[in-house]
């Protein structure tokens, strides 16, 4: 969203006039201004500068006696369900949604903030069903949010009613933002799936494996840190001021997962930014923690001497270690053969680095945690240098994996109770976004089939590991939120699609394979009879059961499909070889025709290799 529309222009305005306005406000632009009768277009270097231009210029700067209007340039075909609301009162900032604040000197006291977003929620809800609401980081005191409604009619009504609306003394400014999925020129694969007619998978989610190659993927690997729980309040700051300043200074997005692992002594922080932005934010956070540790040390000194100091954590007397979370897949390459890579980083940065052991037992997998903890001990400066080297190696490993592997993406449709949708989405869509980032999967909830539907479909797209993590968290959330009884096992129905010619292999002769699947996994596996293949020549396989049963059944079916695919490729290879041999032998006339017929017979109808059933 870096293309801008500049409106309410006088007919005498020239590109030079607009260049002067942008230069005076120190707002960069790319290319030239395209000036039309009464309006103009221009590109900014990125979305952040576009937002800066809107906030700085729109309704505030005169050109030839008229106040100009600056908005995102949104083609008509992309004006659908997404809108942006600006000039939201500053005391309704996003950070005020936190309901508990653990201050470093509170000694267990909890300070409660009032969730003021409820005021905005009630206003938005007057015009339709809100699917998501995300805050946009800006340099202004007032807040900006991007809102997605369930339909374009609701979004249009919200723009008409909310633009100029007075909210606690502030005049709201509302405009469309691009909705790529609404663009009819986009690929048909972006169609929304439905329960009976599953469309193609949507566009690749930014940051997920298997995305477009040839681009810079560095931003796909965020920096994940562990920080002591008692320092979280200081990192957030009063009314979120500290964390807001860090995000502005480093051009980053920082998520503090305060509600994960309730009661844990440490909380994860995720920093999304450029490698330089991640490193800068990391150092700032370490400096905040170090200062708080020193303040707490003085606080303990002030209470009493020996008793208080003995109760104070030992780490407060020393430099706090930096703890980085890294996916287990990358840790081996970080360590290097015989630990050479890790030893070199230690020597180059004058730090001591340890890595938590790898637990691969089933009981650990129930925590859905594939990450290991890298602990770096040293000064803030040396830890910062070590972080740069560690993350550089991890990013290199990620890039290598992307270029070396073609990740098999899977799409699973999981059906959940309709009443549980709110819990899965979370307030302002925060839970489903965190889950998507955690799992590395695209997670979307399809609209209900009917107004009184008792189930909703969750569309999960990602590689096998992402499926395990995403589905596991959804099962756990339903149990945690009491949508199933205390002694009731969470059982859900999942649908996967298989090529119609492979459905028989899933069923097996006389139903033997599907019966073995059910006995092995304890899941109910059904391939409905008399299915009409969809436009992709695929049919549905239904799997119902508890989490591990459902996961095992999915994996076994995927193994069957992979085997069928390999057999197809082998048969096709043999058919091609036979045709090539016949051509090379110089066969002509009837002989050539016979060779062509043999190759066609090997390939089967429609060019598909034939699979013989035993």
UniProtKB/TrEMBL annotation:
A molecular function GO annotation:
RNA binding
Q: Where is the composition biased (Low complexity)?
A: 577-604
Q: From its record, what is one biological process in GO terms?
A: mRNA transport
CDD domains, per the entry: KH-I_IGF2BP1_rpt4
Record keywords: Cytoplasm, mRNA transport, Nucleus, Repeat, RNA-binding, Translation regulation, Transport
In terms of PROSITE patterns, this protein maps to: KH_TYPE_1 (PS50084), RRM (PS50102)
Q: Which GO terms describe its cellular component?
A: cytoplasmic stress granule; nucleus; P-body
Family from the record: Belongs to the RRM IMP/VICKZ family.
Q: What is this protein called?
A: Insulin-like growth factor 2 mRNA-binding protein 3 isoform X13
């Amino acid at each position: 969203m870096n293309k801008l529309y500049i409106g309410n222009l006088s007919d005498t305005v020239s590109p030079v006039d607009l260049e002067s306005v942008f230069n005076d406000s120190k707002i960069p632009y790319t290319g030239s201004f395209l000036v039309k009768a009464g309006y103009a277009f221009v590109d900014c270097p990125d979305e952040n500068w576009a937002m800066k231009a809107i906030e700085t210029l729109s309704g505030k700067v005169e050109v030839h006696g008229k106040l100009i209007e600056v908005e995102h340039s949104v083609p008509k075909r992309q004006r659908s369900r997404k809108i942006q609301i600006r000039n939201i009162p500053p005391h309704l900032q996003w950070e005020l949604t936190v309901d508990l604040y653990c201050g470093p000197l509170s000694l267990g006291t909890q300070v409660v903030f009032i969730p003021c977003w409820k005021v905005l929620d009630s206003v938005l809800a007057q015009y339709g069903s809100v699917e998501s609401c995300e805050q946009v980081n800006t340099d202004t005191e007032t807040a900006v949010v991007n809102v997605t409604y369930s339909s374009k009619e609701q979004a249009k009504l919200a723009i008409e009613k909310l633009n100029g609306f007075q909210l606690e003394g502030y005049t709201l400014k509302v405009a469309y933002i691009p909705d790529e999925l609404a663009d009819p020129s986009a690929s048909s694969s972006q169609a929304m799936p439905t329960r009976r007619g599953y469309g193609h998978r949507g566009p690749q989610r930014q940051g997920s494996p298997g995305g477009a190659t040839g681009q810079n993927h560095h931003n796909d690997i965020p920096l994940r840190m562990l920080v002591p729980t008692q320092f979280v309040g200081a990192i957030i700051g009063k009314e979120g001021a500290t964390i807001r300043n860090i995000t502005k200074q480093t051009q980053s997005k920082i998520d503090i997962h305060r509600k994960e692992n309730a009661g844990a002594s440490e909380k994860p922080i995720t920093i999304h930014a450029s490698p330089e932005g991640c490193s800068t934010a990391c150092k700032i956070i370490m400096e905040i923690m170090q200062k708080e540790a020193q303040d707490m040390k003085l606080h303990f000194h002030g209470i009493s001497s020996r008793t208080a100091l003995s109760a104070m954590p030992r780490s407060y007397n020393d430099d706090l270690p930096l703890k980085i979370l890294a996916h287990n897949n990358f840790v081996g390459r970080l360590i290097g053969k015989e630990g050479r890579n890790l030893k070199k980083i230690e020597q180059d940065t004058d730090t001591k680095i340890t890595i938590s052991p790898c637990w691969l037992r089933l009981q650990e997998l129930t925590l859905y945690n594939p990450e290991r903890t890298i602990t770096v001990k040293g000064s803030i400066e040396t830890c910062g240098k070590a972080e740069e080297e560690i993350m550089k190696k991890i990013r290199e490993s990620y890039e290598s994996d992307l270029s070396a592997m073609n990740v098999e993406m899977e799409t699973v449709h999981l059906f959940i109770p309709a009443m549980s949708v709110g819990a899965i989405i979370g307030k302002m869509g925060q839970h489903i976004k965190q889950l998507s980032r955690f799992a590395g999967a695209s997670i979307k909830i399809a609209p209900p089939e009917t107004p009184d539907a008792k189930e909703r479909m969750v569309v999960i797209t990602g590689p096998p590991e992402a499926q395990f993590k995403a589905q596991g968290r959804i099962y756990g959330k339903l149990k945690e939120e009491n949508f199933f009884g205390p002694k009731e096992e969470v059982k859900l129905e999942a649908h996967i699609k298989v090529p119609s010619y492979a459905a028989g292999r899933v069923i097996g002769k006389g139903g033997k394979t599907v019966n073995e699947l059910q006995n092995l996994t304890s899941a109910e596996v059904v391939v409905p009879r008399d299915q009409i293949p969809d436009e992709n020549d695929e049919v549905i396989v239904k799997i119902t059961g508890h989490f591990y049963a459902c996961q095992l059944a999915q994996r076994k079916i995927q193994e069957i499909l992979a085997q069928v695919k390999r057999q197809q490729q082998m048969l096709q290879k043999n058919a091609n070889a036979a045709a090539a041999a016949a051509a090379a032998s110089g066969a002509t006339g009837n002989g050539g025709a016979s060779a062509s017929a043999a190759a066609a017979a090997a390939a089967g109808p429609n060019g598909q290799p034939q699979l013989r059933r035993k």
